[in-house]
Design goal:
By secondary structure, the protein is an alpha/beta fold. The chain is built from 8 helices and 20 strands. It has a 6-stranded antiparallel β-sheet, covered by helices on one side. Strands 10-9-8-7-11-12 form a 6-stranded parallel β-sheet, sandwiched between helices. The longest helix has 14 residues. The structure holds flavin-adenine dinucleotide (FAD) and FE2/S2 (inorganic) cluster.
């Protein structure tokens, strides 16, 4: 298996808003990096002498190869976002891990569907990649974007979206929603259930069957979208969501799964256990203390397992639990089907029994 790590060179940095910028990369040999619209890149940086990793969704599409781009929004007090926005320079090389993620769309020219996107703030980044891919690769599909921002100045990709709306006038429609608009606007306030339903009804998109729904943004916004889609009886398997920030544990009921593989019961005692991980043909056994996750214990032993967000969101560290019982602190990144199949996220997992064996890849 070839290494999932490589270097990319910064070839341009485009300022999007006062606190967001797009970083454009190229492979130093101009190799094309393959990825699906909606996937993310893991940037691996050395800041203040310490290696740090963060996930950033690709806002480009493979049609723009060999260029690939991520768009970063500043998080107040945030280590990496501030480093990238204040310090990174054109010409610098950045170590990355190959594109990953399940929040993605596979395009095919014969598709004839509605792609409905719901985004707010930096949540626009994977949606932008999906939007551009559908417009260029599915000539018979339409895209509608409901896009929430604080005000007109904080809209990432504003010019690009306007340009695309003109270029694909009958295939792309964007509705802007502002919580604190500076001027008169169509939708004032935060994106909420009734606003979403009204917009979709007006656009005659409330009762359609050939649609897929993607959402990315703050948890509150995604809850509102989810409720609106429930009211409109949209089937759950047509709805996809991506979180950039970790949430509290989900409802215990939702998490109790078949067999004894994955658990989130907070009453279960986490004790010191030896865990075995199989990765790229090698088997590693190591001790995991109660205050460590399986990933942390592996990294302490210099076992180079894959990871990115370290918050149970991105699935870069996903493995399948072959035996034993594991507690998950967070399950945002896993679907119900994955939970049932025994998948775990090593960055938020703790062994609950002596015989835990996890296979990655
Ligand atoms: C799959 C995935 C894709 C992502 N894609 C993007 C992207 O395309 N663009 C982008 O800008 N970010 C994206 N993120 C978020 C990104 O990885 C970082 O978490 C973010 O840049 C903050 O990192 P930091 O080092 O600046 O902040 P940290 O130093 O890690 O955190 C500082 C404080 O801010 C809080 N915080 C962290 N992230 C956020 C956030 N997003 N919003 C509000 N508070 C936060 C933390 O809880 C902490 O209290 C993505 C995350 C995931 C998991
Ligand atoms: S590293 Fe992202 S889910 Fe574990």
């Amino acid at each position: 298996m070839s290494s999932p790590y490589f270097n990319l060179k910064v070839i341009e940095i485009t300022r999007e808003t006062a606190d967001a910028a797009t970083i454009h990369f190229e492979h130093p040999d101009k190799q094309t990096i393959n990825y699906k619209p909606g996937q993310f890149l893991t940037l691996i940086l050395s800041i203040e002498g310490k290696e740090v990793r963060r996930s950033y969704s690709l806002s480009s599409t493979t049609q723009e190869a060999p260029r690939l781009s991520v768009t970063v929004k500043r998080v107040e007090g945030g280590l990496v976002s501030n480093y990238l926005l204040n310090t990174l320079e054109v010409g610098q090389e950045v170590k990355v891990m190959e594109p990953l993620g399940n929040f993605c769309l596979t395009c095919a020219p014969q598709n004839q569907r509605n792609v409905l996107l719901f985004g707010a703030g930096s949540g626009i980044t994977p949606l932008m990649s999906i939007l551009k891919a559908v417009l260029t690769e599915e000539p018979n599909s339409k895209v509608t974007l409901l896009y929430g921002n604080r005000d007109e100045d904080s809209v990432i990709f504003k010019d690009k979206l306007q340009e695309l709306e003109q270029q694909y006038a009958d295939r792309l429609h964007v509705e802007y929603i502002y919580s604190q608009p500076k001027h008169d606007c169509d939708h004032r306030g935060r994106m909420n259930q009734s606003m979403i339903i009204k917009i979709l009804e007006r656009l005659q998109l409330a009762k359609i069957s050939n649609a897929v729904y993607f959402m990315c943004g703050p948890e509150g916004m995604m809850e509102e979208v989810r409720h609106a889609l429930d009211v409109l009886h949209v089937p759950a398997d047509c709805i996809f969501r991506e979180s950039f920030v970790s949430n509290k544990l989900q409802d215990k009921q939702e998490e109790a799964q078949h067999g004894a593989v994955v658990s989130s019961d907070e009453d279960e005692e986490i004790t010191t256990q030896t865990v075995t991980v199989i990765y790229e043909g090698s088997e590693y056994s190591f001790v995991v203390e109660p205050d460590q996750t399986i990933l942390e214990a592996a990294l302490d032993q210099n076992i180079d397992l894959p990871y990115s967000c370290q918050a149970g969101l991105c699935t870069a560290c996903r493995g399948k639990c072959l035996s034993g019982k594991v507690h998950l602190d967070e399950r945002e990144g896993l679907s119900d089907a994955e939970m049932e199949e025994g998948y775990v996220l090593n960055c938020v997992s703790h062994p609950l029994s002596a015989n835990v064996m996890i296979e990655i890849g």
